[in-house]
Structures are given as C-alpha cells and as structure tokens.
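user: Please review this fold.
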Amino acid sequence: MKIPAFLLQLSRLNRRILLTLASLVLVYAVLGFGVAPRVVKAKLPAMLGQRLGRNVSVQKVRINPFALSVTLEGFLIQDRDGEAFAAWDRLYVNLSSSTLFTRVIALQAVELDHPSGRVVVLGNGKLNFSDILERLAQDPKPKAEATPREIAIDYLLIREAKVQLLDRSLSEPFATTLGPLSLELKGFHTQPNNQNPYAFAGRTESGEAFSWTGFFTTEPLASQGTLTLERLALPKYQPYYKDQVAFDLKGGLVSAKASYAFQWSSGTHVLKVVDASLDLQDLKIAELGQKANAIELPKLELRGLQADLIGRRAEIGSLVARDGMLDLVRTENGELSLMKLLMPKPRPKTPEPNQPFALKIRELGMKGFRLAFEDQGTVRPVQTVAENIEMSLKDFSLEPEGKAQLTASFNVDGATRFQLEGSVTPLKPSADLTLKVDDLDLTTFEAYADPTLDLRVNRGRLSLNGNLRGTWEGKASDFTAIKGNARLAGFEVMDAAQQEVLVRYKELRINGLDMSTRPEALSIKSVELNDCEHRLVVAKDGSTNVARALRIATTPQPKAAGAVIGGAVPPSKDGLKIALAKMILKAGRLTYIDRSVEPNATFLITDLEGINTGLSTLPESGSALTLTGKAGGLAPLSIKGHSMPLRRDQDTDVTVRIQGADLADFSPYTGKFLGYTVRKGKLDVDAHIKIENRKLKALIKANLDQFYLGDKVQSPDATGLPVKLALALLRDRKGMIAVELPVEGSLDDPDFHYGKIVWKALFNLIAKIGASPFTLIGSLFGGGNEDLSLIVFAPGSAEPDASAKAKIEVLVKSLIERPELNLEVEGTADAITDGGAFKKSALEARLHAAKVQSLKTKNPDLEAEAVRVTHEDRPHWLAVAFEATFPTPKETGKNTVPLPTPGEMEQRLLGTLKVDPNQLRDLADRRTKAVVKAFLEGEKVEARRVFEVEGGERAKKEGGSRVYFELK
C-alpha cells in the first residue's frame, strides 16, 4: 500500500498522533455505526420492557456518531393483551454538537413517522397504562439541578400519527381513532420569552378534522394560537352522555374555530378566547325509543365569541338558529315533552363560585322555525302548528336586571300572525311588550275551556293589539298587565250536550282594555256587540243550556250565610274590580226556547239596540241603561233606567215597556199552569223593577187586549182557580184587561227565581179574585167596602130596601162593563126571622078579626077594611084572643086567676101559631124575582145573563133573609 505523500512529510510524532486520531475515529465510527446500534437494539427492548412491564421490540437502530443522530425503526410496545400499545415506523433525532459544550440540550431535528398509540379505559375506570405510571412513580427521582438545562429544538415534525381510543368503562363501549395527525414545531427553546411556533392538524376515522396553530413559551408558560374543529359528529360520542340525558341524539355536526391567549405564571393567569365561531348542523333529537324527531335544527351559528375564562366573562356577537323544527307534546299528566327531554339528570350540587359568570349576547335569534304542538292533557287533544317563527333578542345578558330587546313573530295554523316587540328581563323574568294577534282561530283551543265550561266553539277569530307587561318571579309582587284593543269576529259557541247554538257574534269589539292582576282590576272603555244572538234553552228536566255550559249545579246546594243567590258576588276589599265605561249593542237578538212545556215555548226579541254606561263592581258607581227592540219580532220593547249587571244585586232601577206582544206565544205556559190555551190577545207591559241591597220590589202593569183563553188542556200542573171568571171580571166591554202585579222578594231566598215570583204574584191575584170576585167589582165600580155578594131583606119582606137597591146598581154597572159575566140569583127565607114575621102577621090578623066580629054585632054593615086595631085597644083584643085560646076555668070558689101582661099574652099566642113551609119557599121565590126584576129594569142588562137558581151551596149553608149572587 502506498503511503500518501503528505504523511511522509510529517514528523514521526505527528504521524503517530494522526494515526492515533485516525484510529480513534475509526474505533468511534465502528462503535457508533456498528456496535452501538447492535447494543441499543439488544439492550433497549429488555430494559424498557422491564421498566414498563411490557414486551418491547425494535426492528432497526441506526446511529450516526458524526451527525450525532439516532434513528429507531419499527419500534413497538405491546399491551398486556398482545395489542400494540405504542409504535412508530421511524424516529429520527439529530443532536446538535453544541449540546456537548453548553448547558443547552439542542436538537437540530426530531422526526417521527407514523407513530401510533392505543389508549384503553378499562371496565374499572383505570387506563391500560395505569400500571406503567405506578411503576415509574416508584423509581427514585433524580436530584434536581440547581439551574435546569435549557432545551432547544430547531425543527420537530410528526407525520401521520394515529391514536386509538377504546373506552370499556361505559355501558356502551366507545372506540375512535385519531389520525392521521401531524405536528410541526420550529425554533423551540425553553429560554424565557421565546416564542415557539407550532402547527398541529389531524382527523378521525369518521372524517372529523382538527388543527392547532400558534406559538408558545415555556418561561413564562404561555401560548397563543388558533384551534379549529371541523364536522365533529355528536352521535358518535353518545356513549359518554347517553346515561346523563333523556333523549336520543340522532344527528349533529359541530365545526368550531377560536383564537386563544394563555399564560400561567406567578401573579399572572390568563385564559382568553378571541373571535370564536361555532356551526352546528343537522342536529336531530328524538325521544328515547322513538323514530320521529322531536327537535331538528339544520343550522346554528355562533359568531364573535370573546371570553375571559379566568375573569368569568364572555360576550357573543350573535347566536342564530335557522329553519328548526320542534315537536312539543303536553302529556296527560301535564308534562311537556321537550322539558322532560332536555332536563338534565340530577347531579351532586357543586359549590357556587364567588364570582358569577357574566355572559352577554349581542343578538340571539331564531329564523324560519316551526313548532308542532299537541296537548294530550285535555279532554280532546289540541293540535296546532306555529310556523315562520322569527325571533331576535338583542343585548341578552346573565345580569339579573339586564334588559334585552325582543322582536318576535310567527304564524299559527297557517293563518294567524303573532307579533311581539319590546324589552324583556329574561332572568327576572319580566317583560314590557307590544303584542299584536291577527285572526286567531279559537276552535283550535276550545278544549281548554272543558274543565270549567261545557262548550264547543264552532267558529271565531280573535285579534288583539296592545301592550303586555309583567313580572313572574314567583313572588307576591308578581303581576301581569294587558292594555289594548281586541276584536272577536264570526264567533259562534254551542252547548256541547245538546249541540245547539248558545251565543253567536258577527263582531265583538273591546276598546281600551286595561287588565291587571296586581291590583286585581279590569277596566274597559267600550264593548261593542254587533249582530249578535244569545239563545236560552230550557230542557225537559228544567235545566238550561247556560247552566250546562257554565257547569252550574242544578241540584240545590247548602249555602253559607250571606251566600249570593241570583246576583253577582260582591267584591271583597282587595278582590277583582271591574269597570266598563260603555257597552253598545247593535242588531241584537235574544231567543228563548222552553222544552219543559208541551208544546215547546219560543220567545224572540229582535232588533236589539242600546247602550249601558258606567258598569262597575264598585257599589258607589252609577250606571245608565237604554235598550230598544222588538218582542216577537214585532212588538216594540224599551228598557230604561240604571242597571249594574256586574252588581245587579245592589242597585237596579229599570223601567221595561212592551207594546203589542202577541199572547199566543204564551199558550204553552197557560196550557200548563192555567189549563187553557190562548185563543188570541195582545200584551202591553209597563214594569218598574227595583233592586236595592238585595231586595227586589217590582210593579208590573199589564194591559191585555182581547185576551181570550181557548181549548181546555189536561195538565197536572194546572191551577184549580177560576181562571176564566177572573179574566171575565178583569176584562172590560172593550176586551181590555188592566192588571197591576206588585212583586217583592229577597235575592237571599234559596227558592228565589224571577219567573217563579211573577207566576206566584199572578196566581195570588187569580186566587184573590176567585175567592172574592165581588170585592174586585166593588173596587172597580164604586161599591166601596160593601159586600156585593148578597142582599139582606127585612123579615118577611120581599122588597129590596134602599141599601139593596144601591148594591144592585153597582152590580148592574159591573155587568154592563163586563159583558162576559153572567149572574146567578138565589133567594132564601129564614124559619126564625121570616117565620116570626109570619106569626106576628097572623096574630095581628086574629086581633083584627076579633075586633071586627065584636063591632059587627052592633053594626052588621061595618066593613072590615075600615077597622084598625090601635095601640090603645090592642091590649084588650090581646086579652080577648088570649081568653079564647086559653079559656079561664069555671069558678071553684076560689079567686079568679088574673090575666098575664100584654107582652106575655102576645108571646103565648105566637107560640100557638105554626108557619107553613110553603110560605117560606114562596117568600124566597118572591125575593129572587124582585131582585131579578130590579136588574132587568131599563133593559140595561140582557135577561139571558141573569139567572134564577135554587140549591146553591152557599144559600144552603148560610140561609137567612137574603138573596145571594154568584158570578159565572
């Protein structure tokens, strides 16, 4: 081998030194390139395996001693189950030579290709490498250097990294693979304030992508950068949250981007998020076990998030949800499906932080939402759909008193439009909003009236324009206040039981509505009823459609002292106060149908027009009422006065007038209660009704023109009173009946009823007339207090005296004025009074005959008619008659018996006389004929209307020297 020339020129010593160095380099190279890799490959797996408790293997080790680099290829750490725990294809580390001469561990390059790892959470919650951590924790810790060495890495690159995550601690195992991941780091140095840039990016097996770029420092520990997450599939992570929620998350992709600033050093703690954004797409949530989605949210956008997590403050520029769908169900037990769905399960309470979290959202919005609502808690399920829901809430915050501006609108069932605008305090909560509702279909919500009302809303649309204010904190100071105007159009309600119309409005307007719950008050400037109809129907059992609709008990219930019957409940001191300034009625109609009578009764009042002002529950308030209409569609009706429907138990003073109502409409009632139909008749009414302090006083003046009863009706409820006689007595010769009915009652009477009390007054009048018709005649035709039902005669006389003739005159006048009346006349004679008169007449005749006979013995030609028994000679002739009747006994040697006194002789003589019954019958007949003759004199009364009768009950019972009258 030829020695290089430059070596020959060196001295022996230098040549030896050079050769020594060359030998050393050769040995270094042999050791570095050849021996060290073999040693590392042989020793490293065993040493690591012993330390980690795992099988470790390396396929190839390459060391470049001159470049100060190490390459490990095919590195593998096996887990205890034989699977790969950690591995990489290639790890290249290039140490800088400066590391040999300074306290800085300097790496020129670190490259890691295709690293992979496997993290397993075992069933007991421990990690698959927990034992490794425990082993490492048992190793003695090296003594810390007084001044730690700095670390510098010029370039760090990780390519195609993958991490497999398997969590077996969950009820449903979770598995995912992160990767391929990449990380690039340049100019890393642990010296103070050195900004180390980095870039980290990767994806998962399901296409989720993430990246992390920025820089960090180790002294102080700080970092700034940007995090990006794309298309994170939320259902994938369901095993982690499914036991904590009550819903099934079927879809949802999250993408987010945020810049951050972090610093954690002595005296300085910073963790801020800057200009963060988040997009949630295709969120789908369903109830557990259900296929249909309860929530669908195609897009949720969050923009402009700024947060100071240490200072517990955050601000969001906008949070807007778009085109969502909510399916809300209220179950039979009153639970709301979405509340149940989204309500978190109970968790242990954590201590409240000293500083509350401050959140502000500049704009919180919903656009294009749809809400389908079904209420299964009503008798009939309620289903409705709200569409085109638009909502904007500006300047929302978590401050308890923080106000936000709300603008919202939506459509209900495709037609109704709701609009709200104003301020709200979400956390108080309270609101001050303008509210506008256009044409809300009430049929959709009629089932909500079922608990208190038995109604069916056939149709009706509500519009409202006003202001809504309120506070709802669950405190005594809570209140709700509504002001504005309302309109109800095309409204029709029917009785649910009978399926008949109850109320019908073409239009109802409420102007100046002002309602508040604190204090409880309702005031309205005006209510206008246009083209309305109210129907009151009485069923066969006596119940009414109104009572059924309002669910008012028909069976009598015990009432506490002071209970209100037939009137409104007086308000308590702090109770609801109602004030209605004006109520206007136009083109009204009232229909009354009574099916409790046969045939059914129907009454109709049309063309109702009127105004009622000053209505209030306050007792000191005044009201005025004017109402006109047509009874039966034809007869004019007017009502005037002051009436308080809201406090009608306290102050009502009303005059009601009806002109020319057809009485044939009342035929069902006259048939039931009077026993006759109505043949014809017209009715005029002038009634004054007054209620004061729950006491009713009414005077009903009625004129019944040509009121005649018709056919007889067999009715068990018909009165036995002489109805036709009463009407005949009341009806004048022009066919007019004038009646005054005073009506009184107390609204506290448990049996109080307006209809009952009027019928009672009418029956009392008929009964009074039937019991004493002649009293009525006396009051009508000047009879005074005289009893016109009989005439008293002098004993034995058949000639009416002056008093009798006066009574006959009054009765003649009554017969003239009451052409339908007939009079029955029955005379009587009394065996005692009239018989005594007959006896006296017979005694006088005997005395007269005795005197004539005595005088004719002296003067045969004396005429008997010229003879009179005078007062002076009457005792003598009594003695003659007495001795003739009671002869004196012949003398027996004793003194003669003296005669009795004239009075005694007269009584004894009368006692011997007998009265012929025919005389009494004749006297009674003569009296009857004398009275009938008096009635017929002057031909003022037709003979066919005055009847001589015999055998009357009263004549038999009372008798006497009389003539009795009976009207027919």
